[in-house]
Amino acid sequence: MAIAAIPHDAHGEVDQLYVETRELRLQGFLLFLISDCVLFSSFIFAYLYLRNTGQGWPPPGIARLDVAFAAWNSVVLFGSGATMHYALENWKHGNFMKYMWMLIATIILGAMFLGGQGYEYHHLIFDEKVTWAGSGIFGASFFTLTGMHGFHVFMGVCYLTVLLLQTAAGTYTYQKYFGITAGTLYWHFVDVIWVVLFSIFYLL
Amino acid sequence: MNVALLEKIGAIIGGLIVGAVAFYALWKDWKTPGVENHVFKVMLLLLGVGAVIALLAGLGILGTFGKA
């Protein structure tokens, strides 16, 4: 779809207020991501501290996590980060249809990751009998951290779906698209958090 | 072919593709200025590292596969 087919501002010009406040919006969003990073960091360091105070890991009686499945599920999430990056790049270059397909691919991959996490939870809870409250530090920290991350991914999928609908409705223009930038930043953030969680829960 | 092997193959192939895409995008955007692009570069670098970690896990170099 050509650039001209995308709805622009009412007067076809860039909103001056938007230009002036864009940097502030970006800084505000980055502060939000930093605050979220602090939240995850506190839980991660608490987990690492508790893990190192225990005798052996995972604790006796608790099965090892399935690394093969987690590696596959991680690649699905990381792949969604790549598609989201190219969605934004395509938007910047005026490729509307490529942007839409990349965004749809990101939403599908994000939903697949959540499905994978749900499958893993089901397996752990019903087959391995690992629960949040009944498996000590391991169960509590695993379900709290991965659950918190999963909630972030779920909210991200909702956000990206809203972005998709907004874009289809012509909310954004090629000059005014901070919502898409923020969505991309957020999605990269949940990817990066998973790099850490995958490493500390499955590989260490 | 068992499920674990398929997962490993998926992790290896996916890790290769995503890692290559992330590092290529990082290389392509390397000279772009501005805070926003600098943040994207850091995110792409970490995404690439994550893909390599998943690839190494798929190869069995990192982590221990299956249940002990």
Account of the protein in words:
The complex is a heterodimer of chains A (204) and B (68). By secondary structure, chain A is mostly helical. Chain A has a domain at 68-203: Four Helix Bundle (Hemerythrin (Met), subunit A). Helix content of chain A is 76%, strand content 0%. Chain A contains five helices and no strands. The radius of gyration of chain A is 20 Å and the shape is elongated. The termini of chain A are far apart. Residues 1-7 of chain A have low confidence and may be disordered. Chain B is mainly α and 68 residues long. Chain B has one domain (10-59). Helices cover 75% and strands 0% of the residues of chain B. Chain B has two helices and no strands. Chain B has helices spanning 3-28, 35-59. In chain B, helix 1 packs antiparallel against helix 2. The longest helix of chain B has 26 residues, at 3-28. The A-B interface holds A 23, 26-27, 30, 63-64, 66-72, 74-76, 78-79, 81-82, 85-86, 89, 181, 184-185, 188-189, 191-192, 194-195, 198-199, 202-203 and B 4, 7-8, 10-11, 14-15, 17-18, 21-22, 25, 35-36, 39-40, 43-44, 46-47, 49-51, 53-54, 57-58, 62-68.
Put simply, the count of helices of chain A is 5
Helix vs. strand class of chain A: mainly alpha
Helix content of chain B: over 70%
Distance between the termini of chain A: 48 Å
What CATH calls the topology of the domain at 68-203 in chain A is Four Helix Bundle (Hemerythrin (Met), subunit A)
Q: What is Rg of chain A?
A: 20 Å
DSSP strand content of chain A: under 5%
Radius of gyration of chain B, rounded?
15 Å
Q: What global shape of chain A is seen?
A: elongated
CATH homologous superfamily caption of the domain at 68-203 in chain A:
Cytochrome c oxidase, subunit III, four-helix bundle
The CATH architecture of the domain at 68-203 in chain A: Up-down Bundle
- Characterize the main sheet of chain B: none
**Principal-axis shape of chain B:** elongated
Which chains have the largest interface?
A-B, 36 and 34 residues
